[in-house]
Write a structure and sequence with these properties.
The protein is an alpha/beta fold. Helices cover about 50% and strands about 15% of the residues. Strands 3, 4, 5, 6, 7, 8, 9 and 10 form an 8-stranded mixed sheet that branches. It has a two-stranded antiparallel ribbon with strand order 1-2. The chain starts with 6 loop residues before the first helix and ends with a strand. The chain binds S-adenosylmethionine.
Length: about 350
């Protein structure tokens, strides 16, 4: 076995420049031994494998700093951390470009079809809208710190912690969402859960041999979900930036998660869900909602200060408003009130 390649041979082998190899060495990614006689760099098989990995990691966009860290610490959790970072960067960029592409499509259609003067007015509005959507998409943040909550989340549910007892009917709600989701669906249907958390809902599908993909914006929640259900496919992802292509799913489900989006974000999330939903697909959501503003006002009158504070800390949906948004996609909304705070809605 030849373990004495020189830098030119290695550069040729990988079809890269010798400067690139020197750069990786300078940055501390390669630690090459020198030939004692002429001080030339010597490459053994380990160096070659390392260089191959470096080039592969660079090809998916990992930075020099990240590659250095991966080479130093090859634990699964460290790999997961860096590859999730990169996944997030790529997904964000795809999302941004998708919004821009659809704005450009609208502008072009407009220019081809309308008189130029009218079109000019539309162009600005379309681009402003696209910029606003991208702004909202990129500015959602987890003010509840779910990463921190992940380890104790299931206990909070079991003990029904909190002033307003939103987990009173947790099991019944999850069961209802599950039943509505599988109604009239084949076993090989494609299902997505958004805000999968610790996978208590996804677990129901898996136990009954349905495949389901769970996305969540919290890496710690995903770690717990995966440790409870090793067969569950999980991905880092958000309501506002679902990391899947158009028309990918027959069914989308979500419980106790939608209320982390404000009114403006909910509209964009609905667009996102409708984008990844197949034409005849359905969405089932179990979450904190009011039928309408007047139901909210009446309920608030009956609550104490602590309970009201908890409600104001979240963004409860109004069923009637959701109905209007889904109608734009020719979807019907059916709902069932579970208790004072919880509804299950079915969008078909
Ligand atoms: C209260 S937990 C509910 C977990 C689980 N669905 C259940 O029913 O037990 C809310 C979950 O939604 C996730 N989440 C909140 N906002 C989200 C968003 N915008 N996109 C994706 N996940 C989100 C959180 O990270 C957390 O895991």
């Amino acid at each position: 076995m030849n373990n004495n390649y020189n830098i030119s041979e290695i550069a040729k082998m990988f079809n890269i420049t010798t400067n690139k190899i020197r750069y990786y060495e300078k940055k501390g990614l390669l630690n090459l031994i020198r030939n004692e006689d002429n001080e030339y760099r010597k490459f053994n098989n380990e160096d070659i494998i390392k260089l191959q990995s470096i080039l592969l990691y660079r090809s998916v966009g990992l930075s020099i700093k990240e590659i250095k860290d991966i080479l130093k610490n090859s634990s699964t959790s460290n790999f997961l951390n860096h590859f999730n970072n990169q996944w997030e960067i790529v997904n964000n960029e795809i999302q941004r470009l998708t919004v821009i592409r659809s704005a450009l499509e609208k502008v072009l259609d407009n220019l081809y079809e309308e008189e130029i003067l009218n079109a000019k007015v539309d162009i600005q509005t379309v681009i402003e809208n696209a910029n606003n959507i991208n702004y909202v998409k990129n500015n959602w943040s987890d003010k509840w710190n779910f990463d921190n909550w992940a380890k104790t989340y299931d206990i909070s549910v079991l003990e029904n912690r909190g002033a307003i007892k939103i987990y009173e009917n947790y099991e019944m709600i999850l069961e209802k969402v599950y039943k509505l989701a599988i109604e009239n669906e084949k076993e090989d249907c494609t299902i997505l859960e958004i805000g999968v958390g610790t996978a208590n809902l996804s677990g129901k599908f898996l136990k009954n041999n349905y495949d389901i993909v769970g996305i969540d914006q919290s890496r710690e929640m995903l770690n717990i979900a995966k440790s409870k259900y090793p067969k569950l496919k999980v991905r880092l992802g958000e309501f506002l930036k679902i990391p899947y292509g158009d028309k990918s799913f027959d069914v989308i489900v979500s419980t106790y998660a939608f209320h982390h989006l404000n009114e403006e974000e909910k509209i964009i999330a609905i667009d996102e869900m409708m984008r990844v939903l197949k034409d005849n697909g359905k969405i089932i959501i179990g979450d904190l909602m009011f039928k309408n503003k007047s139901e909210e006002e009446k309920l608030l009158e009956t609550l104490n200060e602590e309970e009201i504070y908890e409600i104001k800390d979240e963004y409860y949906s109004y069923v009637d408003t959701l109905e209007i948004h889904f109608k734009k996609f020719n979807k019907k909304l059916r709902y069932k009130k579970i208790d004072r705070f919880m509804y299950v809605i079915e969008i078909i």
